[in-house]
Design brief:
Blueprint: H1 3-6, H2 16-21, H3 63-73, E1 86-95, E2 114-123, E3 138-146, E4 149-156, H4 169-176, H5 192-200, H6 205-212, E5 226-227, E6 232-235, E7 241-250, H7 259-268, H8 272-282, E8 288-296, H9 298-303, E9 323-333, H10 338-342, E10 355-357, H11 361-378, H12 459-466, H13 470-485, H14 490-503, H15 505-515, E11 552-557, H16 563-575, E12 579-584, E13 590-591, E14 597-598, E15 602-603, E16 614-618, H17 623-628, H18 631-642, E17 647-650, H19 653-659, E18 669-671, H20 675-685
Helix pairs in contact: 4-5, 5-14, 6-12, 13-15, 14-15, 16-20, 18-19
The chain binds CIS-heme D hydroxychlorin gamma-spirolactone.
């Protein structure tokens, strides 16, 4: 036996799927046919506890009952202090080439090289049982099981952060979570304490613009970008270093919902994002992202307008384009949410050889924090042995014992150096083959200080604002109005508005108008903001992809709807890479023109149009009036209209009249009478929402 094997943890080899197949490592319900206790003793009767006499007390000798309740009483572990609500999936990363010119990280060594991954998406502020479509940042954490150890890229869907120094993280999180004296609001930043903190911390202004944009209400995890946020380092085999910023780009492009829609989705389907990911993967529609890096050197860092160690700043892609390193595909849902998604432990400090840290003070603080939190959550230093966290390469060390030790660490020596040989010797350090940190010269006086180069808090916020399309700007204004409108203390609004005046006068006055307040004087800026060139890459709508791939059409059918047309629609959407669901007045289905009955996926009362990217309403002979008489069907159309969606209609005159929308047709409200109509409708669905629609009239 090799030394490394001898001292290895038990569960190192092969992907989880292979390891699980023998059944030795994890139990599945159904592995055995007989119900047993945790100790394997067959259970006689699981319906009745053991009692003395028919109506007498339960007996302490009923160990099966005692054990069952004991385990149940201890099922919960602490939820994550942030990012508590998350959803995970397995997948694979495939390198697009040999990237050894910039990093020796083995996963990027050759074209086609595959590395298993596990991804957990999350909201930040809400508790585990909160809803998916909160206005919030989304976590995008990826564990790469590389052949030189696990790499955790623990990022967000927004490329900047609220604070520059990790010492402020507990304050930020306390401010955004439920207020301590009342226990609400849940899963939202729209309350006094968050905006109080944000207003008093001008460095958060840039991120609040992103947070007020549609980035914070994504249509799907599959349709959002991810960012490593910080500047990291890459190191080549000869020790040459460059700075990098990580980017995930979804193959499906970026899509968001509108705010009124988000509010309604949270009621209609609080699990909207997790269901979407689950359904997509289970149906074989595996989402993909390209992983890329912006690579730059010290010379660029020195001449860039901002400090590359400041996590409240981006480096515009127009200045440093993203170099693609490979593609990630998520192709497998979890077997058990607790075992995998809940117990997965991401830590920024997990990097393999070839990847290293910069001195970003936020990153440095994170590297300290994540290990701590795993012990708190998972309860043992041996959390690395859980299948979801265990590396899939040899593991060999002299760390021993601890709660829930599952590895049988063999051999005699449990220390080094030692003079044993063979099986008793244990592993030795790797030297240059190990994780060699970047050799950086460090000097300076010990001080608690924020560098001057971190002082400009507004210029990039302004750059973000001017890089948005007018529609996106409208949404940002509306979001500030909504959020600040929820603050009860006027002085808090005033402070935020004073900061916004340093971002853009038009933005500030539009928000002030919306709030019905006077504009305060601008706050004093440590550094006067400057006008930077716009960065079109940060706009969602400006970069929209013309496709219906991965999206969903809701078909509301009325009694006697044209069966052939329903069929055509479903086929055309499928061909376009999308999916369809049928909605009817009753979930049992609806009778169609050919006498057949079409089963529905939703009754219209439970399947509102907010669940779909576009809708078609095929009313049919008797269905026109039937739908017009049904309040939920009227909402179905009205909401689709108000959310700027593409709508296809046939035989829906009575419904249009009942909703007051007759006479309000526009280019995104299409008639679905013929086969050709179906083709043009599905083509239009691939385009943008009809933002020009006048929903106020
Ligand atoms: Fe963090 C979780 C992302 C700053 C401390 N963070 C957590 C998760 C993500 C991020 C995606 C969830 C991981 C999962 O799904 O399990 N965090 C970020 C980003 C940050 C950031 C992109 C800034 C660029 N975080 C940050 C700071 C600190 C933390 C400055 C503390 C100093 N974060 C934590 C934590 C969490 C966490 C308390 C809670 C649960 C966990 O780690 O595993 O340690």
């Amino acid at each position: 036996m090799s030394p490394s094997k001898k001292t290895s943890d038990a569960r190192q080899a092969g992907p989880a799927s292979e390891r699980g197949q023998g059944g030795e490592l994890h139990q599945r319900a159904g592995d055995g046919e007989v119900l047993t206790t945790a100790h394997g003793v067959p259970v006689q009767d699981d319906q009745n506890s053991l009692r003395a006499g028919e109506r007498g007390p339960t007996l302490m000798s009923d160990m099966a009952f005692r054990e069952k309740i004991f385990h149940f009483d201890h099922e919960r572990i602490p939820e994550r202090v942030v990012h508590a609500r998350g959803y995970g999936a397995h997948g694979v990363f495939e390198s697009s080439g040999d990237h050894s010119d910039i990093t020796r990280a083995s996963l990027f060594a050759e074209k086609g090289k595959k590395t298993d991954v596990f991804v957990r998406f999350s909201t930040v502020a809400g508790n585990m049982g909160s809803f998916d479509l909160a206005r919030d940042v989304r976590g995008f954490a990826t564990k790469f099981y590389t052949d030189e150890g696990n790499w955790d890229l623990v990022g967000n869907n927004i490329p900047v952060f609220f604070i520059q120094d990790a010492v402020k993280f507990p304050d930020l999180v306390h401010a955004v979570k439920e207020e301590q004296d009342r226990g609400f609001p849940q899963a939202q930043s729209a309350h006094d304490t968050f905006w109080d903190f944000a207003g008093l911390m001008p460095e958060s202004t840039h991120m609040t613009l992103w947070q007020m944009s549609d980035r914070a209400i994504p249509r799907s995890f599959r349709m959002m970008e991810g960012f490593g946020v910080h500047t990291f380092r890459f190191l080549t085999a000869d020790g040459t270093s460059s700075f990098v910023k990580f980017h995930w780009k979804p193959k499906l492009g970026l899509q968001s919902v509108v705010w009124n829609e988000a509010l309604k989705i949270n009621g209609a389907d609080p699990d909207f994002h997790r269901r979407d990911l689950y359904d997509a993967i289970e149906s074989g529609d595996h989402p993909q992202w390209e992983l890329g890096v912006q690579v730059f050197d010290d010379a660029f860092a020195d001449e860039f307008d901002f400090d590359v160690l400041d996590a409240t700043k981006i480096i515009p892609e127009e200045l440093v384009p993203v170099r693609v390193l490979g593609t990630m595909t998520l192709n497998r849902t979890v077997d058990n949410v607790f075992s995998e998604t809940e117990q997965v432990a991401f830590m920024t400090q997990n990097v393999p050889p070839g990847i290293d840290f910069s001195n970003d003070p936020l990153l440095q603080g994170r590297n300290f924090s994540y290990l701590d939190t795993q012990l708190k959550r998972l309860g043992s230093t041996n959390f690395t042995q859980l299948e979801i966290n265990a590396p899939r390469c040899p593991v060999a060390h002299f760390q021993r014992d601890g709660h829930m030790q599952t590895a049988h660490q063999r051999g005699r020596a449990n220390y080094e150096p030692n003079s044993f040989t063979g099986e008793d010797r244990g592993p030795r350090e790797a030297g240059a083959a190990g994780h060699v940190p970047f050799a950086e010269e460090v000097s300076g006086t010990t001080r608690r200080i924020r560098a001057e180069s971190f002082a400009d808090h507004y210029s990039q916020a302004r750059q973000f604002w001017v890089s948005q399309t007018p529609v996106e700007q409208d949404h940002i204004v509306a979001a500030y109005v909504f959020e600040l409108g929820k603050c009860e203390i006027p002085a808090i609004r005033t402070q935020v508005m004073a900061n916004l005046r340093n971002v853009d006068e038009q933005l500030a006055s539009r928000v002030a108008d919306g709030l019905g307040m006077e504009l305060p004087a601008p706050s004093e800026a440590a550094v006067q903001p400057v006008d930077l060139d716009p960065s079109p890459a940060v706009s969602i709508l400006g970069n929209a992809k013309e496709t219906f791939e991965g999206r969903k059409l809701g078909i509301l059918v009325g009694r006697g709807a044209d069966a052939a047309q329903v069929d055509r629609l479903r086929k055309a959407v499928e061909k376009a890479g999308g999916m369809t669901q049928v909605v009817a007045v009753a979930v049992g289905g609806e009778s169609l023109s050919d006498g057949s009955t079409l089963e529905a996926d939703h009754a219209v009362a439970g399947g509102p149009s907010v669940l779909f990217d576009a809708v078609a309403i095929l009313a049919g002979e008797e269905g026109g009036q039937q739908l017009a008489d049904e309040p939920a069907a009227r909402d179905f159309l009205t909401d689709a209209f108000n959310h700027f969606k593409v709508v296809g209609l046939h035989g829906a005159d009575a419904l249009l009249a009942a909703t007051g929308l007759d006479g309000k047709t526009d280019e995104a409200i299409l008639v679905l009478g013929s086969a050709e109509d179906v083709t043009s409708f599905v083509a239009r669905c691939a385009g943008p929402r009809h933002w020009d629609r006048d929903i106020t009239a």
